[in-house]
Amino acid sequence: MRLESRAGSDKRSLFERVVEFLSPGPDSRAELIETLADAEQREVIAPDSRLMLEGVIRMADMIAGDVMVAAPRMDLLDIDAPYDELLALVIETGHSRFPVYEGQRDSIIGILLAKDLLKLQRAPGLNVRTLLRPAVFVPESKNLNELLRDFRSNRNHLAIVIDEFGNTAGLITIEDVLEEIVGEIEDEFDEIQSDEGIYTLADGTQRVAGDADIAVVNHALGVELPDDAFDTIGGLVAHEHGRVPRRGETVAIGGLSFTVLLTRGGAVRWFKVAPTAREPGA
Fold first, then answer.
1. Structurally, what CATH architecture does the domain formed by 65-182 represent?
2. Which CATH architecture has domain 198-275?
3. Cα–Cα distance measured from residue 171 to residue 73, given in angstroms and rounded to the nearest whole number
4. Handedness of CA 19, 26, 180, 40 (dihedral sign)
């Protein structure tokens, strides 16, 4: 009985080795992604699981500069601003954390939590500087995998991204990193999306999905963007720009400016669209 058991065990082991030899595993990330797609098609994994796994794989090649909010679009607080002005910006943006600068916007001196600002109501004589928390600075080239580990180990949710010259390039949050894995994270401040991926924001501009059809955008905004070579807005903007634009970058096409609000998986998820400013005398 023991001999038969061992023989059966050896046969199974040999069979597994033969299968592995005839059907080797993926040798590259592209093949691994294809394997995941095949697993989804055969209903081995759910579609959401495949997307998350692909996000983890792609994130290994991404750096902070790929997903950061560019410096011109950062919502900052001036350390010398009056309390009412600070409170108004906190309420308007709905963020929970704010970089604070002194003098020039590039001079970040700390991070202020929105909840800490309320302490000034109970103690008006309190100095805002005493409420600041240390700012974390990371290079633009920092790998997202490493950054996520740092966020988790340091219990920090926001970092200031600096370029090779030490200047402020932007900021990145733990939510920005996680969205590369799980997709866009909606919160209570996010608008409800329309079926066509286009809707009007409070300031009169439009929020347009990167995969929105050009024909639909033309009809909704009353423009005539070319749709003979590309089907989606994201494809058209990437072509005109020469590459997929990063978060915070703006591309002007056909009298409209397309500012990237969110990227995911190497593509633009959302644009903020507004008419381009006309030059004086035009």
1. Roll (3.10)
2. 2-Layer Sandwich (3.30)
3. 9
4. negative
